[in-house]
From TrEMBL:
It comes from Peptoniphilus ovalis. This is Phosphoribosylglycinamide formyltransferase. It catalyses: N(1)-(5-phospho-beta-D-ribosyl)glycinamide + (6R)-10-formyltetrahydrofolate = N(2)-formyl-N(1)-(5-phospho-beta-D-ribosyl)glycinamide + (6S)-5,6,7,8-tetrahydrofolate + H(+). Pathway: Purine metabolism; IMP biosynthesis via de novo pathway; N(2)-formyl-N(1)-(5-phospho-D-ribosyl)glycinamide from N(1)-(5-phospho-D-ribosyl)glycinamide (10-formyl THF route): step 1/1. The record marks D145 as: Raises pKa of active site His.
Length: 200
């Protein structure tokens, strides 16, 4: 048992490669936290298979009340949205202020908000012709993709193929999500005037 390890819930809707990065980096103790539950609003999400393979409890939940009661039952300290495609209810966002981290596959505030998810983000990046894109982790507030930014990683756009770009960005998503969760579990993330300071 790790000393003052944080209890983490990971919410998914799909393949779960970000979840896998967190599983790997909590199990090897790089992150001082333990994933207590993986929750999906899609019963066929491969991420639930990843949880099962790692012997982590998984749950298919669509009802927001059940979601909140499960988070409380598991005494969760940190919620991670790792490709979770549902909007969280305000009650959960308020109860877990600055304790919900989301990973988004662009440099927020570009290419985010309503309708910008998954491959659509990268298609819009290529369509616009921006020279750089990347990934962002941020705390979740009541406005989609607008909470305080924790980390970003930037890459040059060198392809016109959205799926190829998605795979390149995904590598950096895993990197900054693991780092962001590590810092959270070490109590190194402070939100001051709406901006995140990563401190000692
Ligand atoms: C990632 O691109 C993430 O940024 C977005 O949804 C995708 C989830 O991918 N929110 P995975 O399920 O973690 O592989």
């Amino acid at each position: 048992m790790k000393s003052n390890s944080k209890n983490i819930a990971v919410l998914i809707s799909g393949g779960g490669t970000n979840l896998q990065a967190l599983i790997d980096n909590t199990r090897n103790n790089y992150i001082n936290g333990e994933i207590k539950i993986v929750i999906s609003n899609n019963k066929d999400a491969y991420g639930l298979e990843r949880a099962k393979n790692a012997e982590i409890e998984g749950a298919f939940i669509r009802d927001n009340d059940k979601l909140l009661s499960l988070l409380m039952e598991k005494d969760i300290d940190l919620i991670v949205l790792a490709g979770y495609l549902k909007i969280l209810p305000e009650e959960i966002i308020r109860k877990f202020e600055n304790k919900i981290i989301n990973i988004h596959p662009s440099l927020i505030p570009s290419f985010c908000g309503k309708g910008f998810y998954g491959l659509k983000v990268h298609e819009a990046v290529i369509e616009k012709g921006v020279k750089y894109t990347g990934a962002t982790t941020h705390f979740v507030n009541e406005n989609a993709d607008e909470g305080p930014i924790i980390m970003q990683k930037c890459i040059e756009v060198k392809t016109e193929d959205a799926e190829e770009l998605q795979q390149e960005v995904l590598k950096f998503e895993h990197e900054i999500l693991v780092e962001s969760v590590k810092y959270f579990c070490e109590d190194k993330l402070k939100v001051i005037d709406g901006k995140v300071k990563i401190g000692e």
